[in-house]
Design goal:
The complex is a heterodimer of chains A (about 550) and B (about 300). Chain A has about 550 residues and is an alpha/beta fold. Helix content of chain A is about 35%, strand content about 25%. In chain A, a hairpin with a 2-residue loop joins strand 9 (about 230-235) and strand 10 (about 235-240). By secondary structure, chain B is mainly alpha-helical. In chain B, about 70% of the residues lie in helices and about 0% in strands. Chain B contains 12 helices and no strands. Chain B is elongated, with a radius of gyration of 24 Å. The chains are: A alpha/beta (about 550), B mainly alpha (about 300). The interface of A and B includes residues 23, 429 and 441 of A.
């Protein structure tokens, strides 16, 4: 490769956090270069300061609380930390642009897509209206928007998430910037869409020779797209180098541990479980969401979330429910716990029907089927102490308070939290610790089945591995059955004995995980598996064994 | 998520030394100087009410000197006397009791009604919400003071009726506020988590959600308290107050007649009302800061 020209040079950058934060500097002594036509992935867990790096380059830090105290950021050799607000504004969008994580919030809902891309041109070029429109249509075609002319007049909410992200990319590219900063641009997207967007970014970057600083936490995505990788931990750069080297032969222990925590794509071998009794059985469940029409808004067509769904879960078994957003997998988890009423069908727990249960019977039945939620912050009442959160269920079901509290303290050690945690409030814990509290709360009821709805998707990859290991461990020790809802096929491969693949409310494929992953029958399953980012890359160190 | 979530340090994270909630709240409150001033004024009013019998013993409605004595001229009546020769100081300190009682009780009544209606409407939604909110609308379309006048005119102007009527006309704003909080909070997963544990609906509404919905309501209570006092004053000004109590409003209402010759009869209680209401709104702002969880400790 010919020595490429550096576009972005970050030198000894230090970003100070306000006093009283968990550390003095968000970024400490960061030196990083992005060359022409190169994709540099900045990888790190939450709190590593990776988004701060983007903010520092774009000069979008929440100043004066968080500010650059040392170092230089050079764009094509020009130090931009010294520029004034006005010069910086001229630079943004023109030579330097950014793609955000959530395209819905980054686009103005009040304006058409065409207007918003046009605005970039209006501010930075002298083109007349006709030329601008032609340019907008051209760039929309470049990002493979199906019908640029009609998209020009569409509002953001009329488009899918993937299309919106394409629009964001079009907006970032329209002035042919030298550098694009992409901050987790595919995190909010489904895997199949993610694959398309990653390909798009890579293709466009290849054509325009743009430098891209790609910020992500997902090593699968990194393996897919990176030329070079920089690993950030607590504001410090621990390792950087060519993609192949970091991915396959990481040097720093932190990088090693991070990569080891990436779930491998090899599902567990099939378990002979045929003789274990069926604990949870769903029979032809159906749920339709009637769109609520007001007096004036007229009737809208009802949405079928789940149609004719049946499955069986045996004791000690883990059944994965996988699918993309809108496939109805969350609806399934809410119906079997009866947080949502189904239209028809049966949910049998040890042969007792949960759907037909009366209010009183239901309360007793709830003991047997407990839930672990996606967002550990939202699912723990912020005003309650941990001990009360865990003991609440047993107390409601008649256990004396002292006994329930004693049991709750035992559970804390079972989920590997210190006994001191008991008297604290949820906000004092990290995400992974909160999820442990959520698990302890579910276990406290001594359930037969635990329904886990994306329990690790809000967690960092290393924490994710620990929580998954804890779940698997508890499942085996307490011979629980797990119904595990996830969009992440890597996670499903790690934990689930069987999977059902859902698309638009229907099961398109079901079977033992190893069989489904090795030899998918349905075209949807095939495309899902083909879209797993970094599927060709096998993490070098054997992943921390979950089993 | 904190640093402890990264791989190498396993197990529970070191946690910051525990500070009691009250201490944290006080530290945040203290940072707002105006709020501290409000608190000082409020404490002064409370002290006046408590020490009324020490400062000005006897019935505040009885004569203590010549009529219309100017302030700072007589040791026996330091703030002067009104047209009937009643000590203005006695009226002020005894009036503090009535005023505070009106403020506190009327606020409790209005917040209680508002919380129940708002919580039920916000939690259940659907037709329950529709019905309750239409009732709220009906109350809100009538100017609250006109409604208050009507109620007092019908049921008579005893102090109990006045307090009750003030409570009844000012519950709508808290109700809407609680409803909005509930609508946001009932979507949160911790509500589902509680349902999943088998917690009963009333317990979910009042024990799980309500504590999370209260901070803005507590702040708003200071506004309600200020307006309750103003409403009582306005009633008294229109001679619809309870004549058996020395309330500040009554004093202004009677002082109005002598406004051109002895302005102090109306102005002194007026200034006291101003300071009291001001103290509530300043404290409300301080509480807003203190109860905001995003504020630092």
């Amino acid at each position: 490769m010919t020595p490429a020209k550096p576009i972005l040079e970050i030198q000894n950058l230090r970003v100070a956090l306000p006093e009283g934060g968990d550390r003095p500097n968000a970024l400490d002594d960061l030196t990083l270069t992005v060359n022409e036509g190169e994709i540099v992935c900045l990888v790190g867990e939450s709190g590593s300061g990776k988004s701060m790096a983007a903010g520092a380059v774009m000069r979008l830090l929440p100043e004066p609380h968080v500010r650059v105290t040392q170092g230089a950021v050079r764009l094509d050799g020009q130090d931009i930390t010294a520029l004034g607000q006005r010069e910086m504004r001229a630079l943004r969008g023109d030579r330097l642009s950014m793609i955000f994580q959530e395209p819905m919030t980054a686009l103005n809902p009040q304006k058409t897509v065409g207007w918003q891309i046009d605005e970039v041109l209006r501010l930075h070029t002298d083109l007349d209206r006709r030329a601008r429109k032609a340019r907008v249509l051209e760039i929309l075609a470049d990002v493979h928007i199906p019908d640029p002319a009609s998209t020009y007049n569409a509002y953001p909410h009329q488009m899918s998430g993937g299309q919106r992200q394409r629009v964001m990319i079009a907006m970032a590219l329209v002035l042919k910037p030298r550098l694009i900063i992409a901050d987790e641009p595919t995190t909010a997207l489904d895997v199949t869409t993610q694959k398309q967007i990653l390909k798009l970014i890579k293709d466009l970057q290849h054509v325009h020779r743009t430098g891209i600083l790609f910020i992500t936490h997902d090593f699968g995505v990194v393996a897919e797209i990176a030329d070079r990788i920089a690993v950030l931990r607590l504001g410090e750069l621990v390792e950087q180098g060519p993609a192949a080297q970091i991915l396959n032969a990481p040097q720093h222990p932190y990088t090693k541990a991070l990569i080891a925590a990436v779930p491998a794509l090899t599902p567990p071998p099939e378990k002979p479980l045929v003789d274990a009794p069926v604990v949870l059985e769903a029979k032809s469940l159906r749920k339709t969401f009637a769109a609520r029409g007001g007096l004036l808004s007229g009737k809208r067509a009802p949405v079928v979330a789940v149609k004719d769904l049946s499955f069986q879960l045996r004791r000690g078994e883990t059944l994965g429910v996988v699918g993309e957003s809108g496939s109805g997998k969350t609806t399934v988890s809410r119906i079997v716990t009866r947080l949502l009423e189904s239209d028809s069908g049966e949910v049998l727990i040890d042969g007792r029907d949960l759907i037909a249960a009366s209010r009183r019977e239901l309360r007793a039945l709830r003991k047997d089927i407990q839930m672990v939620f996606q967002d550990p912050m939202a699912s723990l009442n912020p005003r309650k102490r941990v001990i009360d959160l865990i003991a609440q269920g047993p107390i409601v079901h008649g256990t004396p308070k002292a006994e329930a509290h004693a049991r709750a303290r035992e559970l804390l050690s079972l989920v590997e939290l210190s006994p001191a945690a008991a008297d604290r409030f949820p906000h004092e814990f990290s995400g992974g610790q909160r999820q442990r509290i959520g698990i302890a709360r579910a276990i406290a009821m001594e359930p037969r089945v635990i329904v886990a709805d994306e329990p690790v998707s809000a967690l960092d990859v290393s924490v994710q591995a620990q929580v998954l290991r804890l779940l698997a461990d508890l499942r085996d020790r307490l011979s629980l059955s797990l119904l595990f809802v996830t969009h992440d096929l890597r996670v499903a491969a790690q934990l689930c004995d069987k999977v059902i693949v859902m698309q638009k409310g229907e099961i398109v494929e079901a079977g033992p995980t190893s069989r489904v992953f090795a030899d998918p029958q349905h075209s949807y399953t095939q495309s899902l598996l083909a879209s797993i980012p970094g599927r060709d890359w096998e993490p070098p160190v054997q992943a921390l064994a979950v089993k | 998520m904190t640093a402890s979530d990264t791989i190498p340090p396993q197990g529970p994270a070191p946690m910051a030394p525990q500070v009691s909630r009250a201490t944290v709240l006080w530290r945040r409150f203290r940072r707002n100087r105006a709020a501290v001033l409000g608190l000082i004024l409020f404490v002064a009013v409370v002290l006046m009410a408590l020490l009324a019998d020490v400062i000005a013993p006897g019935d505040p409605l009885s004569r203590t000197g010549m009529p219309l004595v100017w302030p700072f001229t007589e040791a026996a009546n330091p703030l002067g006397t009104d047209q009937l020769g009643r000590s203005i100081l006695a009226g002020i300190v005894h009036g503090a009791r009535v005023t505070l009682m009106v403020g506190v009780v009327a606020t409790v009544i209005s917040i209680a009604i508002g919380v129940v209606i708002g919580a039920v409407a916000g939690y259940f939604g659907g037709w329950v919400d529709d019905v309750l909110m239409r009732v709220t609308d009906a109350f809100q379309t009538i100017p609250s003071f006109v409604l208050l006048l009507t109620l007092v005119a019908i049921y008579g102007s005893s102090i109990e009726n006045i307090i009750l009527a003030i409570g009844v006309v000012s519950w709508t704003a808290p109700a809407r506020m609680v409803r909005a909080e509930f609508m946001a909070l009932r979507q949160r997963e911790f509500v589902d988590a509680a349902r999943n544990l088998g917690v009963s609906t009333p317990a979910i509404i009042f024990r799980e959600i309500l504590p999370n919905a209260l901070p803005p309501v507590i702040v708003f209570a200071s506004v309600v308290m200020a307006t309750s006092i103003l409403m009582e004053t306005a009633l008294a000004f229109l001679n619809l107050g309870d004549p058996n109590y020395a309330s500040w409003g009554n004093m202004i209402g009677q002082g109005r007649a002598a406004l051109r010759t002895a302005w102090f009869c109306a102005v002194i209680p007026g200034v006291v009302i101003l300071l009291t209401v001001l103290s509530f709104s300043l404290m409300g702002e301080g509480m807003n800061d203190a109860l905001n969880p995003r504020q630092k400790k």
